[in-house]
Amino acid sequence: MIAVIIPSFRVRDHILGVLAGIGPEVGKIYVVDDACPQGTGNFVKENCSDDRVEVIINPKNLGVGGAVMAGYKKALEDGCTIMVKLDGDGQMAPSLIPKLVEPIAKQEADYVKGNRFYDLRYLRKMPGIRRFGNSMVSFISKMACGYWNIMDPANGFTAISATALKYLPLDRIDNRFFFENDMLFRLYTIRAVVRDMPLQAVYGNETSNISISKIAFQFPFKYLNRLFKRIFYTYFLRDFNIGSLELVMAFIFLLFGFIFGGIHWLRSVETHQPATAGTVLLAGLPIILGFQSLLAFLHYDVANIPQKVITED
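Structure (tokenized):
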């Protein structure tokens, strides 16, 4: 059974239209009122007669991630097999749900997410600042999360299998706007298969709840945290392979080259004597080898994307 989870915060003006657009392929709809000041949950109870709709009201605001986690947990309790996360602001087309869940139903993926960058026709309709920002964030997310094959990581139109969801530490996933990126990191740790689905976003008169200043301050540290954790888990804790060796060699060569070169450069400045050709070679060669090893590691990492769908034990 397919379930749709709709985190709701300041979406009262759009929620009924979103609910009306969800087709018969969906068996359950969970509207999670995340302490919405507009009372979206009660508004849905009073104005929506769809028997599939169940309203969950969080007593305090948990953030978009916390709201989705509440919906995921309830859907798992109710025996749903595929969970779709759909925003309540009308930017995502509910008519695309069958296409979104198809790879999961065919056991070709564990997690499917929207991608607004696939079709150039869609890109022309996206505001320029969003195109640039999402491109930069996508590249950083690829490094941090390990899914080099996907784009648009912040896209919130997603579907996940119940099998994969059961393996995730739901209580440890980021509750705020880093939620989508943290989901990708957690999915990589369980070696889940992630696929993109091309779609067109709709930009209307909706109001974003995202604080740019908070994102600019918090996201870089969170990306670094996930990057180091992923590298440690994948290449040192769970396995030690050729990629691990390439990364270790890159670290050793680069560290030696920069330290050795830095020491002799400072000595040359103090003594006003240029370094010898041999000294320059001893500093430069390890740096070159270090970058070559780092590139070899990145090549291995790109090829190390999960390919096998998670199945029940």
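The first strand starts at residue 2 and ends at 8. The beta strands are 2-8, 26-33, 53-57, 82-85, 111-115, 158-161, 194-198.
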